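Exercise 7. Given the encoded structure of a 406-residue chain, write a plausible sequence.
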C-alpha cells in the first residue's frame, strides 16, 4: 500500500470519497481522503494521468467534476484504488501528492443550488405525532403514501467545523396568546443523511425509481438544525421556515454511492402498497451506523444517540422519483436530506426532541449536567460508517459548535 491506512479508518481503500481542501500553500481544490491523508487530485492531474479536462479539479467546488458523469468520476476512484496497491504506480514516487488531513482545511464540497428536506423515518414521524398530535393515531393520513418533504434554504448549508449562532425568532409562551421575540430556548439537532444530485434534468422530465441511482453521486452526514419552539409557533399553516433556515451542517467528504454497495439491504415493508411510480425493485436501504455526541464547552463528549440509516421507511430512489414526478427539474449539486433518522429504541432517536421527550426526560452528560435541548457552547458531532466482511467505509464527522444568539 502506497499510504499507510490505520485500522478502522473511515477512509479505507474501499472508500475514496471526494472533497475540497486547501493548505497554506495550496488553493482550494479537489482531493480524496485516504486514511489520515488527502490525495491532491489537481496535483495528480499535472502528471497527465486523466483523460478529461482536469481544470475542474482546480475549482473550489466539485460540481463541474461531478457533471462529467459517473463514467469518468467512477474511473477516477477505481484508478486511485489500483494505484494505491501498486508499488510501481504513479503515486509511488510522488509523496508531494499527499497532504496530511491534520494540515488541511476542508471546504464546502459542492455549491448547493437547491435543498430539499424529507421526513422519511417512520419512527421519527410517529414520535413527533405522539408528542404533538395523537398518541393513538400519530401519523398523518398522507405519510405512508408519499415521501413528505419541504424546500429548505440552500444558502445556509455549511461545512463541518463552522460554528453557528443560536437563532432568534417568535415563540408562543405557555398559557399565552401573544408571541414574544428572542433567542430559541429549544435548539435541537436532527441526525440525517444527505445525498448529492449528480446529473441534471430539464423541466418536465421525471426520474423513475429504476433510473434514480444514476442521478445520485454520493452521500454526506447532515445535521438539520432546528429551533423547536420557533417551529411550533410558525409551522401552521405552511410548515418550517425560520426554525430551519438558519443553518444545516454537512460532513466535508462525499462518499460515492458505489462505495456503499457492500452495505445495501432491504427496506421495511411498505403498507399500504405504494402507487406505481414509487414502486421499486432491489435493495435500496443501506446499513450505515450513525451516532451523535454532545461536548460541553471545555468538557468531554457524551454519546447520546446510536442509530442507523437502514431505518428509513422511504428510500432515496423513492424520494428522487417523487421529487421529480411533477416535472420539477434537478441540478448537479442539489442536496436532498433524509429527514431525522430514528430507530425503535430510545437511544436510537435522532433528535433531542425525542431523546429527552420534549424536555420531560433530560439526558445526563458525563460532566453531570443535564440537557433537554442544546446549550450555548455545546458542540454537536455526528459520525457514520458501514462495516461488513472486513470492509469499512465511513463519512468522518460533521461537528458544529453553538454560539450565543446575536
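Solution.
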Amino acid at each position: 500500500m502506497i499510504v499507510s491506512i490505520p485500522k478502522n479508518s473511515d477512509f479505507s481503500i474501499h472508500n475514496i470519497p471526494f472533497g475540497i481542501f486547501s493548505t497554506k500553500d495550496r488553493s482550494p481544490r479537489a482531493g480524496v481522503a485516504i486514511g489520515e491523508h488527502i490525495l491532491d487530485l489537481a496535483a495528480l492531474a499535472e502528471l497527465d494521468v486523466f483523460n478529461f479536462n482536469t481544470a475542474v479539479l482546480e475549482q473550489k467546488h466539485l460540481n463541474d467534476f461531478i457533471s462529467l458523469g459517473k463514467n469518468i468520476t467512477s474511473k477516477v476512484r477505481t484508478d486511485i484504488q489500483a494505484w494505491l496497491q501498486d508499488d510501481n504506480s504513479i503515486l509511488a514516487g510522488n509523496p508531494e501528492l499527499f497532504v496530511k488531513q491534520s494540515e488541511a482545511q476542508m471546504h464546502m464540497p459542492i455549491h448547493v443550488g437547491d435543498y430539499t428536506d424529507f421526513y422519511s423515518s417512520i419512527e421519527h414521524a410517529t414520535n413527533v405525532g405522539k408528542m404533538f398530535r395523537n398518541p393513538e393515531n400519530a401519523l398523518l393520513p398522507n405519510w405512508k403514501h408519499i415521501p413528505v418533504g419541504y424546500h429548505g434554504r440552500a444558502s445556509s448549508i455549511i461545512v463541518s467545523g463552522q460554528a453557528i449562532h443560536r437563532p432568534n425568532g417568535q415563540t408562543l409562551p405557555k398559557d399565552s396568546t401573544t408571541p414574544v421575540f428572542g433567542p430559541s430556548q429549544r435548539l435541537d439537532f436532527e441526525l440525517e443523511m444527505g445525498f448529492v444530485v449528480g446529473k441534471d434534468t430539464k423541466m418536465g422530465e421525471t426520474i423513475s425509481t429504476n433510473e434514480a441511482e444514476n442521478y445520485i453521486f454520493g452521500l454526506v452526514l447532515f445535521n438539520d438544525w432546528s429551533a423547536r419552539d420557533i417551529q411550533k409557533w410558525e409551522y401552521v399553516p405552511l410548515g418550517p421556515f425560520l426554525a430551519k433556515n438558519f443553518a444545516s451542517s454537512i460532513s466535508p467528504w462525499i462518499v460515492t454511492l458505489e462505495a456503499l454497495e457492500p452495505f445495501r439491504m432491504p427496506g421495511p415493508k411498505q403498507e399500504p402498497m405504494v402507487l406505481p411510480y414509487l414502486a421499486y425493485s432491489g435493495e435500496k436501504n443501506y446499513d450505515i451506523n450513525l451516532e451523535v455526541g454532545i461536548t460541553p464547552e471545555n468538557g468531554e463528549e457524551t454519546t447520546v444517540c446510536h442509530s442507523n440509516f437502514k431505518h428509513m421507511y422511504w428510500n432515496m430512489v423513492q424520494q428522487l422519483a417523487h421529487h421529480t414526478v411533477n416535472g420539477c427539474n434537478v441540478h448537479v449539486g442539489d442536496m436532498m436530506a433524509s429527514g431525522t433518522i430514528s430507530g425503535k429504541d430510545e437511544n436510537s432517536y435522532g433528535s433531542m426532541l425525542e431523546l429527552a421527550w420534549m424536555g420531560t426526560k433530560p439526558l445526563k452528560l458525563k460532566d453531570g449536567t443535564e440537557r433537554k435541548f442544546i446549550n450555548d457552547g455545546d458542540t454537536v458531532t455526528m459520525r457514520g460508517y458501514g462495516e461488513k466482511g472486513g470492509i469499512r467505509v465511513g463519512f468522518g464527522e460533521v461537528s458544529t459548535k453553538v454560539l450565543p444568539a446575536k
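Remark. The chain has two domains: 18-107, 115-403. Students should compare their own answers with the one above.
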